[in-house]
């Protein structure tokens, strides 16, 4: 018997993005992100020196997707980054990210907490951002996204300003994964 919906059980294909740690605008800090076809997908253009204000993740046309804002914590408890939908920062954040301060687990770089009051950890980020080798792990330590050094087809490795972000869309939104890259860049 033939299946009525042959693609219903198939896994959503992973998204492989190329991230370039450079703004398309002159004299700006930021990121330019391309999809697997080479089309512009996301951009971050930050005019402020030291990224002290909000950081805005935009689509290819400049439409605001996510706003990232740093929240300083008192008593040296580390910083907390809040991520909001669009350009709105007065509503409840979608999630927050905290740098891991656990001395016993030095593999864990940061963790992502949902916007509900349970303070449940949605994702853990492990690896080394400076070497562009990180994994974003979700429920049951299932891989949601991965940052890796980019290699050319000839095997030549690019510098740390060009790298690959592989996203499992059934585990994390692509724009959320890019927001985590931006936050890792802020933290490390």
Question: Could you please describe the fold and organization of this structure?
Answer:
The chain has 188 residues and is mostly beta strands. The protein has a domain at 15-94 and 147-187. Helix content is 7%, strand content 41%. The protein starts with 14 loop residues before the first strand and ends with a helix. The chain contains one helix and twelve strands. Strands 1-2-3-4-5-6-7-8-9-10-11-12 form a twelve-stranded antiparallel beta barrel. The longest helix has 14 residues, at 174-187. Strand 7 (95-99) and strand 8 (108-114) form a beta hairpin. It is globular and about 50 Å long. The relative contact order is 0.18. Pfam families: LOR. Belongs to the LOR family. This is Protein LURP-one-related 8.
Quick rundown:
This protein is mainly beta. It has 1 helix and 12 strands; from the N terminus they run ββββββββββββα. The protein has a domain at 15-94 and 147-187.
Shape: globular
Low-confidence stretches: 1-6
How much is the radius of gyration in Å? 17 Å
The residue-averaged pLDDT reads 86
- N-end to C-end Cα span: 55 Å
Number of helices: 1
| Strand order of the biggest β-sheet | 1-2-3-4-5-6-7-8-9-10-11-12
Main structural class: mainly beta
Order of helices and strands: EEEEEEEEEEEEH
Q: What's the total number of strands?
A: 12
Strand residue content: 35-45%
- The amount of helix comes to under 10%
Largest sheet properties: 12 strands, antiparallel, barrel
InterPro entries: LOR, LOR_sf, Tubby-like_C
Protein name: Protein LURP-one-related 8
Family: Belongs to the LOR family.
Organism: Hibiscus trionum (Flower of an hour)
């Amino acid at each position: 018997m033939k299946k009525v919906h042959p693609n219903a059980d198939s896994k959503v294909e992973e998204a492989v993005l190329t991230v370039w740690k450079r703004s398309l605008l002159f004299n700006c800090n930021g990121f330019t992100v391309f999809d697997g076809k080479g089309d512009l997908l996301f951009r971050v253009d930050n005019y402020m020196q030291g990224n002290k204000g909000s950081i805005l993740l935009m689509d290819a046309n400049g439409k605001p997707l996510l706003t990232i804002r740093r929240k300083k914590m008192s008593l040296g408890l580390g910083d907390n980054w809040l991520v909001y939908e669009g350009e709105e920062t007065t509503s409840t954040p979608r999630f927050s990210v905290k740098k891991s301060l656990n001395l016993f687990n030095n593999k864990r770089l940061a963790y992502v907490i949902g916007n509900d009051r349970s303070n449940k950890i949605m994702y853990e980020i492990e690896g080394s951002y400076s070497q562009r080798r990180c994994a974003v792990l979700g429920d049951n330590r299932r891989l949601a996204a991965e940052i890796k050094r980019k290699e050319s087809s000839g095997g030549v490795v690019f510098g740390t300003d060009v790298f690959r972000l592989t996203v499992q869309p059934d585990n994390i939104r692509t724009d959320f994964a890019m927001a985590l890259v931006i936050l890792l860049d802020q933290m490390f």
